[in-house]
Structures are given as C-alpha cells and as structure tokens.
Amino acid sequence: MKNNLIYTLIVIISILGYSCDEDDNGQEYIKPPIGEGVYDNLHAPEGGDFVKLKFVPDPSTPKALITDSENNWDIAFRGTMIIVNGGVKTGSGNEPERVSSPQISAYIDILNMKYINVIKSENLEIYGENQDKAGQPKIPNISGQGWFEDDGTYITPLEDKTIVLRTIDDYYVKIGMYSYYKDAAPPENSSKDDQGYYSFQYSINTRLGDYYLD
To answer: In terms of residue numbers, what domain contains 6?
Structure first.
C-alpha cells in the first residue's frame, strides 16, 4: 500500500510538470512550471508613445500583453529605451504613470549573462535601486551598457545580456532580446523604417514570489 502511494505521488508530480531540487539553504524545493514564450514585432518606434507591456503567468500559455492601462503595466518600450513600472519618471517625456507603493512596484535589472544561463534572480526587490530614477532608467539606454550595441548603422541585441523583472503582481520574468528589426530580419537587410520592432523570448515563473527562472 505504501509503495502504491509513493508511485501515485510520483505520477501526479510528473503530470503537473513539477521537479524536485534544492533551494539555496539545501532544503527540498519543488520547482513550479516555467511558462515560456516569444514576442515578435513589438512596435515601439523612436518618437512614438511608450508601448506598455503586462506579463501574465500561465504554465501552458504565458502571455505578454500590450496594455493601455495607466498604471497596470510592468515594462514599457520606446525606441531603444526600456522603463519599468517602479521608481520615478526619468524625464524622457510622455512617460506613463508609475505605481507609488514599493509593495506593488515592479523591479528590473540587466545581467551580464546569456539568457539560457540565467536560472534565478534573487535580491531583485531593492526599492529605489532596481527601478528607474530621474534622468536615469535602470536599464541604461546607452550602447554597450544596456541590452544593445549601436555602431552608428545597426542596432544589435547583446547576446550576453539578459533582463530580469519582478512584475507588479510579484512574478519573476527573464527576457532575452534577439532582434530590433521588423520580422527579425538581419540589420543589413533592413531600412531605418524597420527599426523599433522588438523580438524577444521570455520565461515566467508561475509561482507567486518565486525568483527561480529555469
């Protein structure tokens, strides 16, 4: 009877897609499903309005949705600039409103790691630090310092940079940019009008407050 019970539990865990591991304290840790998705051609051209994005956790079909909500958003894009719904306005003009409470603010950072190598994002929730500041977005909008390289002709995502995010709903996300051009075409085959089309992959931990991302 005991063996049958153990076997049944193993089957249930397998069906749900959970796996066991150890946390940072050596305790048994059951990993939740990580929702994975791709967003192609998010159009956020320079000089336009910020395009606000909201991440919705779902183990089978995670979503990154454009929203018109005044403050119910996680990150926003315009040109090569990325802002987060936390902290204060940077002063770039026509920025959306941010939530004012640190408990429900979003937090963001950029890691010097390839997307595939980012397995967790602890210590992200530092109020006022991993958020935007006056005159200074947390993700630098500077070639080589943020998510991209601009050689004066082409804008190219940096493969060894990964954005990590804690949403306003307390879910953790990692984002790997792979194109800034329409239909993810090679920059040399694209025109100036084809810029401002973000394509990226993302992973969402579907367990509230859990910072593991792989």
So the answer is: 1-31
